Every structure is written in structure tokens, then in C-alpha cells.
User: What shape does this take?
Amino acid sequence: MPSNVLHIGRNLIIAIVCLLSSLVLLPSTLIAQSPHQQPLVDKFILADTIQPVTAGQLDRALARASADNASALLIEIDTPGGLVDSMRTMAGAILTSHIPVIIYVAPAGARAGSAGFFLLESADIAAMAPGTNAGAAHVVFESGQPDPILSQKVENDAEAFMRSYVAKRGRNQDAAIAAVKDSHAYSAEEALAQGLIDLTAASDADLIAKLDGRVITRMDGGKLTLHLANARIQNLEPTLRENLLDWLINPNIALMLLVGGALLIYLEFNTPGTIVPGALGALMVLLGVFALNLLPIRYTAVMLLVAAVILLVLEAKIGGHGALAIAGTISLVLGLMTLVASPIPQLDVHPWLALSIGIAFGLITVFLLRLAVRARRRKTLLGVEALIGHIASAMEPLSPSGHILVEGEIWRASASNPGEPIPAGAPVRVTGHNDNLLLVTPVAE
Assistant: This one.
């Protein structure tokens, strides 16, 4: 009997242990048997010029994709190109990203021109939508065409940069170099036939479907299989800061802020104590300088602007019969037109804007400065001194003193020659004063 009890107790303990073990292992079993989590693809739309603001946006997109543990970062691109330094920064970030980067030229009518072509070729996956084009990536110099040796150095550097990663991406190196060296441009079909891109796709969903299961080679030589079946595409919206910077980096906006701020600051100096024009003007000038600091600036244009201000001040102070004002306005317009050394028209100052701002600012500056100079010169002609030389009318006989009306004011006056009384109503001229007593002489009718 005791042995049977022991046997039953032992079996009961074993059963309890097995039950507890199964309960502990059940969650992990359910997890192992649950379906895979839906893949996530973050999407960043680059429909702008290549410049420091877009470089910062790309860095944020890559960081966000990494934080989201996304399967890939999809960059939809439509750009005419931009600055070489910003392009190199962005291409370097793409090449070193541990998250696979897909660059997709879309929608129809979009392009990856100039600097955008370098970004397209740097991606793990390069794709284009039908009706798009890419290429024409020859280097355009910001300050005109330099000497042949420097030009060759810069072009060779750009070609070497392209070669450094195109071959590792498994793309046609010769066709890519032709786009840099000879400004060749390719349609989506031509780029696919030339081996410059990996595929064409009509939409994001079509692109993701075609990439599912594709094996890509990373820059370090490692192989990676993309699992993008039924992937969820999450758009990365620009932040308020990025929208503000993108608005400010427009050189036309920057110039309007700079000129408008300068006029408001002058208004504050001319009427001190108003505060609002001075504070708003200082803010506008700082924003304009900040925006221009993000763009390549020609120092010769800055010298033209300084010369323009000097000529306008001289015109207002010493007078040049308009010659100094014309020369200053011309210098101002030329300086504004050539201020930004941009390799693409989209980052240039609009000629009509430079012309209108230059002429308006020149005329307003001369006019306001002349008013200020005249006001400063008249500071010594206040009170009684300001009345000397004015014509007045005798309100009563001056024999030898009485009251006169001058400039709408009644003053006590005395005839300069007491022996010659002045009748009432006779015109007189103020010739001097003795404290507050004016000295007058009769004026011939």
C-alpha cells in the first residue's frame, strides 16, 4: 500500500511538472507559429534642388528608417541637380547606410539631372518610372569657366567619384561616365538597356512587388535579400524647420528679406523709438544673411553691392547731378544678379527681381538720405533763426515797434531804422533779431 501511494504521488508530481512546462513553453510556441510581421518601407520625397537643406532631410530620413527598423528607405526623386558639395554629402550617406536605399525617379515627367544622377547611381536599387529621364551630369562651374587645367581636375574628380561606386553597384560604368563627361541623358528605357538602373516600375506598389526576394550587394560586398511582400509604405513628412529652411534658401526670398529689412532698419534710425520697424528689420536681415550663407556667394558681387551703397550715399550727401545715383543703381543691380554662384538656374536670382529691387532700393535710398541730410542741416535753423530772410506783414504801424505776421505766427518786431515808420499792412523782411524781438526792413511792393 505505501509503495502504491508513493508511485501515485510520483506520477502526480511528474504530471504537474509537465503541465507547468507546457504552460511556460506555450507563449514561445505561439510566437514561433505566428506569421511574420508586415515589412515597413519608409518613403522620403525629394522634389527639390540638391543643397544643404535636402542633405539634412536625407540624414533625418535615414535616421528615421533606422529607428523604425524599416526594411528599406524609398527615395522618390525629382530634381534638376544642385550643389556638388551637398551631392557628395548625400551620396556618402547613402553609400554608408546600413538600411537598403531605393531611389525611384518618379512620377512621369520627373528627372534625376546633374547631381541627382550621382544620387541615383549610389543607391542599392536604382529605379525609374516610365516617362522619366536621368543624366546630363557634367560639372557646371559656379564662377564661370576656369582655366583648362582646373576644369580638367574638377571633371576628373567627378568622374572618379562616379567610378568609385558604380562598378560595385553592378552598373554600366562607361554609360555612367558618359553622362558625367559628355552630358549624356537617358530615358527610363534607355537607362535600363544601358544597365544604369535595375528596373522600371509604374508605381510604388509595382516597385515594391518587383523587389520582393531580390538579392542586392551592399558596398561592403555582403549579400542581402529584400523581403518586401505586402510591405507598408510610410511617408516621411518634412518638419516645420525643414519647410522654413527650404523656403528661406530660395535666393529671391533671401534678397527680398535682406533689402526689406535694411529699409526698416533705416526707418527705425530715422524715427527712433518706434521699435517695431527696427526689430522686424533686424530679424529680416538676419534671416536673409542666414539663407545666403547656405548658398555659394560670389565675393565680386559683394564688392559691387558695397560700391553701390557708397555711391548712393555720396549722391545724397554731396550731389552728383544724378550720375552717382545711376552708377550706384547699376552696381546694385549687377551685384544682385550675380550674387549667388549657382550651377543650376533654379538657384539663381531672377533677373527681373534683381532689376526691380535694385532700381527701387536705389531710388528710395537716395530720396531718404537726402531728406536726412537736409534735416540735419536744418537743425541749426530753429526758432528765431529760422525766420531770418522770410517775408512778413505788419499787423499795425511799426513806429518803431509793433506786431507782424510771419509764417502764420504773430511776432513782435521793430523797424531796423527807427526814423522810418512802417505802416500797417506793409510787407517787411526779417533781417535779424534781438532775443525774441525781430528786426525788419520794408520791402518794395
